[in-house]
Design goal:
Length: 302
């Protein structure tokens, strides 16, 4: 074979490989377990556009938390089986500031869960400035509702160590808890402690992409060794999501609409790319199966 033919042959092999890789990635079922459709996003994007974006990206289902919580139901109307709404305790536009003082939060949660409108509770933030105590009465009542209706709870704890989350997962051993945004302040060794201490915790990797709190992957979008080792050791304990809110990276923007959905495609490509570097069985679990089990959803279409 001439060197030109050899060159052509290797080029076609590379092209075939690239196409099969792309096909494999396109076919991998994907659960986006962390999206928002908030009032300050709805100012610039409507529910049907969000649903189209999810469909075009090949998402099998997306778990949505909204402020106010009823917007998650509006997205559900537009997206049907694609959308899994969870109950946000932020029931009005500024609810994040006072939900834990308001008994009505519990009443609305119970009404929505009883009717099976919501399939989880969250996102609940424990952050400075918005931090109820973990023994807050309203939070405790919400956790008891989650146990009663057997739904998971998505919790965002901003903390320099694992203790704050351990306090919660040890307090509610019968509850399925999701630790939001691993790859941020807490290192893989902290998350390992949580995984070993609490069997009821699933770890979620949203919003720790290179554009926000970069702490999960290297420059080639490969999981850092410490995270990779942990995921391979506990492949049933990890899920991911895009969390397409953008202004988390900014300050002084309370007067501006959140344009996070403009970046959704970039975010989902990133998650698909680090997942594609894992062994195939683990890919399926992290990209889809663990979340499907957690939210008790049917097997995907064939
Ligand atoms: Zn969060
Ligand atoms: Zn979020």
């Amino acid at each position: 074979m001439s060197s030109l033919s050899k060159f052509r042959a290797s080029i076609s092999i590379i092209i075939v490989l690239l196409f099969s890789l792309e096909r494999a990635q396109a076919q991998m079922p994907f659960a986006d377990t962390h999206i928002h459709f908030n009032w300050d996003q709805k100012e610039i994007i409507d529910a049907s556009t969000v649903v189209n974006k999810l469909r075009q990206a090949g998402v099998d289902f997306a778990v949505v938390s909204s402020t106010p919580s009823t917007l998650a139901l509006e997205l559900k109307q537009a997206g049907d089986d694609l959308i899994v709404p969870i109950f946000s305790p932020y029931t009005h536009e500024l609810g994040r500031q006072d939900w834990y003082l308001d008994q009505r939060t519990v009443e609305l949660a119970e009404a929505g869960l009883r009717q099976r409108l919501y399939h989880g509770i969250g996102e609940v933030h424990f952050m400075s400035g918005f931090r109820p105590r973990p023994d807050n009465r309203i939070f405790q009542q919400l956790m008891h509702l989650a146990v009663k209706y057997e739904v998971p709870v998505l919790i965002h704890v901003d903390s320099g160590n694992e203790q704050a989350f351990l306090d919660i997962c040890r307090r509610y051993p019968q509850l399925n808890l999701i630790f939001a945004h691993a790859g941020g302040n807490l290192a893989a060794r902290h998350i390992r402690t949580i995984i070993s201490a609490c069997n009821n915790v699933t770890i979620e990797f949203s919003a720790r992409d290179p554009w926000r709190f970069d702490g999960l992957t290297d420059v080639t979008h490969r999981l850092l060794d410490s995270w990779r080792a942990l995921v391979l050791e506990y492949p049933d304990r990890f899920i991911t999501g895009t969390d397409p809110v953008w202004k988390v990276t900014r300050t002084q923007t309370w007067d501006q609409a959140d344009d996070g959905w403009d970046y959704f495609e970039q975010l989902i490509d990133y998650h698909r790319s680090w997942i594609a570097d894992l062994p195939l069985q683990v890919q399926l679990k992290v990209a889809f199966e663990n979340a499907r089990r957690l939210y008790n959803l049917p097997q995907p279409r064939q």
